[in-house]
Amino acid sequence: MKKRLLALLALVLSTGLLAACGTGDSTSGDSDGEKTYTVATDANFQPFEYKNPESGEMEGFDIDLIKAIADEAGFNVEFKTMEFDGLLASMRSGKFPIGIAGISITDKRKETISFSDSYYDSGLILAVPKDSDITSIDDVSGLKVGARQGSTAEAYLKENTDAEVVAYPEIVTAYMNLEKGRLDAVLYDLPNVTYYIKENAPDKLKTVGDVLEGQPYGIAFPKDSELVDPVNEALSTLKEDGTYDEIYKKWFGTEPPQ
User: Where in this chain does the record put each Solute-binding protein family 3/N-terminal domain (predicted)?
Assistant: First the structure.
């Protein structure tokens, strides 16, 4: 009898330990029965996502959007910030279940990760000093042009120009080096470039040339994730009931283009 009791106790303890260890860092269950998913994101891609220096909380268009999607789809989210190329790697490896950070949907990326339907139309634009003679992407041959590591801007420069490409983990570093004269130009996503210039360097920097590589943003997932369909359904509902428009106007000051 004693041996049976000890065996039963060991079984109970081992089951409890397995249950405690079975929940990974990226997905957990809440007391209300809803799952919580860890969303990989950027810490400084305004106005899409950034950490409020006063509150320490994540804010931005992407943050409000994914929270609204989660609420509609019936799950909760928490955020993990990282560098952009690390975020893409975490989607390929399946380390995190969701990624949102102004991620352009490209055919190459779709080979290894899955995307939601598009939620924002973007493109690339060139930023230069106010007194620069550069007028378009055709003028950057042999010049130092900054971009963000792992971005479509970095890929575009390497594939389509003879510029000396200098890629940074944080795009803000590129902007600051452009202001200090360490770079001749920066190529990056239109909304982020225009936001940075407006908020930080209206008298120092300007945009030039055409918008390049028009590519929509999508929410990223590990390949063939089961979250794609419920997220798409929630996103569609938000667009239909006006919630998406409210979030868009909050962060960009205008109604979204139709």
Answer: 36-255
The CATH architecture one would assign to domain 122-215 is 3-Layer(aba) Sandwich (3.40)
End-to-end CA distance of the chain: 75
Instruction: Kindly report, residue by residue over 26-81, the tens digit of the pLDDT.
Output: 766 655 668 999 999 998 888 999 999 899 999 999 999 999 999 999 999 999 99
pTM: 0.76
148: amino acid identity, one letter: R
Task: Determine the pLDDT at residue 6.
Answer: 39
Q: What's the token pair of residue 247?
A: 């979030």
Q: Quick one: which of 26, 9, 228 has its CA closest to 113?
A: 228
At CA 197, angle to CA 63 and CA 169, rounded to 5?
60
Helix axes 243-252 and 228-241, enclosed angle (nearest 10): 80
Specify the CATH number of the domain 26-119+218-252.
3.40.190.10
What is the mean predicted confidence (pLDDT) over 177-183?
A: 98
